[in-house]
Amino acid sequence: MSMQIGIVGKPNVGKSTFFNAATDAHAEIANYPFTTIDSNRGVMFIRKPCPCKDFNVKCNPNNSKCVNGTRYVPIEAIDVAGLVPDACKGRGLGNKFLDDLRQAHALIHIVDASGSADEEGNPCGHGNYDSLKDVDFLEKEITFWLMGIIKKSWEDIARRCEVESKKIEIMLAEKLTGLGIKENHIHNAIKKIDLDKDKPSSWKNEELLSFSDFLRKLSKPMLISFNKCDISTDKDLKKAKEIEKKGYIVVPTSAESELALNNASKSGLIKYNPGSSSFKILNEKEITEKQRKGLDYIKIHVLEKFNSTGVQKCVEEAVNMLDLIVVYPVEDENHLTDKEGRILPDAHLMKRGSTAKDLAYKVHSDLGDNFIRAVDARTHRIIGADHKLKDGDVIRIVANA
Fold first, then answer.
1. Over 70: is that where the pLDDT of 340 sits?
2. Strand 324-330 and strand 348-351: pairing?
3. CB 304: neighbour CB atoms within 10 A?
4. How far apart are CA 367 and CA 275, in angstroms?
5. Which CATH number fits domain 153-216: 1.10.287.130, 1.10.8.470, 1.50.10.10, 1.10.3720.10?
6. What is the pLDDT of residue 245?
7. CA 162 to each of CA 156, 199, 275: distance values in angstroms, whole numbers, following the listed order
8. Residue 89's pLDDT is what?
9. Would you place residue 292 in the very low, low, confident or very high pLDDT band (cuts 50, 70, 90)?
10. 4-39+80-143+221-318, which class in CATH?
11. In this model, does residue 286 exceed pLDDT 90?
12. What span, in angstroms and rounded, lies between the C-alpha atoms of 397 and 330?
C-alpha cells in the first residue's frame, strides 16, 4: 500500500486550493461549504537531491521528475469533504470524511489563519472566528471516531484477552488494521497511559478516551497549514505559537498564491519551482497590468515575508513526520539503469529502517519472494536481505528468475 497524506479541515478554508496547488489537479474551488463532495486523489512531490549529481550522469526519471539535480518524488494525497463539529456522530458529511481518512498515514490540517470562516465553514468576516478552535475540534472528532470503533466490540475483545490469554495489542491491531493502526502504535499508547494490558476489562471510559486520543497522535500524525497567511494580521499569526505549544508543526501558507504561481509557470509567464522563495518573469511584454499586480502582491506579501508559499514545505514536513527515506532501485549497478536502459528511473519512499528485501517487495512481489541479495551501487558492496537502507541509496536487487 502506498503512503497517503490526507488534506483535512472544515469547509471553506482553502483545502481544495491547497490540494490543487500541491498536486496540479483540478478539484472544484468555490467559496461555500461542501464544494468537495467526493474525495479527490492526486500526487504531491517532495524534493530530494538526485543521485545524478553524485554519479555525474543524466538521469531519465520515470515515476518522478528531476529539475537541475533536485528529484521531485511522488506521494499520494487525498482531499476529502469538509468536516464540521459532531462529524463523529454522522453530522454533515462526517461519516464519509472519517471513512476517507482510514488509509491516511499523516494529515495536513488546513486552518484559516485569518479567522474568516465560522465552525460550519460559512464566511463570517475577517477575524471573527478563533482559528484555534479548529485544531481542538479536529482532534476531538478523530479521537471520538476511533473510540467509537474500539467500543463496538470492546467487551468481547477484553473478555477474550483475559480468558484466552491473548495479547490486547494483537487483537486490537486486527480490528484496527483497516485504519492504518499497527501493533506498535497500540503498544506505545498503552505504555504511555500506563494501562493494565493484562486486564483490559478494568479500563474505565475516560481511560479508553485517553487511549484513543494517544492512538490518534501516533497513527495519524498531523501538522497545521496556517492558510491565508497573506491576508492575516500579525495578531492572527501569533496564534501559531499557541498551536505549537500543543506539539504541532505550524507552517504559514498561502495556497492561493502557490496555485497562481503554478498556473503562471505553466502559461510560460514566469519560471517558478514549487517551494522556491522567488520567481522570474520570462516575458515582460506578455504580462498584463492585472497579472503584474498579482505577481507583485505574491512577491511582497508572501514570498518576501514568509520565504515561500508554504505549500511545498507542508508536504515535506508531513513526509518528515512519517520518517521516510528515498531509495533508487536499478537493475545495473554500474550503469545505474533499468532493463530499458533508463538511468535512475524510479525513486521510492520507504519507511526509515526498511531493508533491502522490503525494497524488493516494493518494486515487485516476485522480486521479494525470490530475493537472493542486493548490491549497493555507491560502494559496490553486496548486502543481505536484512540490510537497512539509507536515504539516497541506489540499490540493485538480485533474485532468482
1. yes
2. antiparallel
3. 11
4. 36
5. 1.10.8.470
6. 94
7. 10, 6, 53
8. 64
9. very high
10. alpha beta
11. no
12. 7
Q: In the predicted model, what is the mean pLDDT of the chain?
A: 90
H or E segment at 66? strand 65-67
In the chain, residues under CATH classification 3.10.20.30 are 324-399
**DSSP per position, 194-252:** T--TT-GGG--HHHHHHHHHHHHHHHS-EEEEEE-GGG--HHHHTHHHHHHTTT--EEE
**74/41 Cα distance (integer angstroms):** 13
Task: Give, in order, the Cα–Cα distances in Å from 342 to each of 73, 123, 222, 332, 379.
Answer: 17, 51, 37, 10, 21
Q: Are 114 and 231 in contact (CB under 8 A)?
A: yes
In the block, cell 533536485 appears at 70
Q: Give start-end residues of each CATH 3.40.50.300 domain in the chain.
A: 4-39+80-143+221-318
Q: Is 127 helix (H, G, I), strand (E, B) or coil?
A: coil
| CATH of the domain spanning 324-399, picked from 1.10.150.20, 3.30.1490.480, 3.10.20.30, 3.40.50.410 | 3.10.20.30
SS3 call for 383: strand
Residue 226 scores a pLDDT above 90? yes
Whole-angstrom distance, CA of residue 244 vs CA of residue 324? 23
pLDDT of residue 102: 80
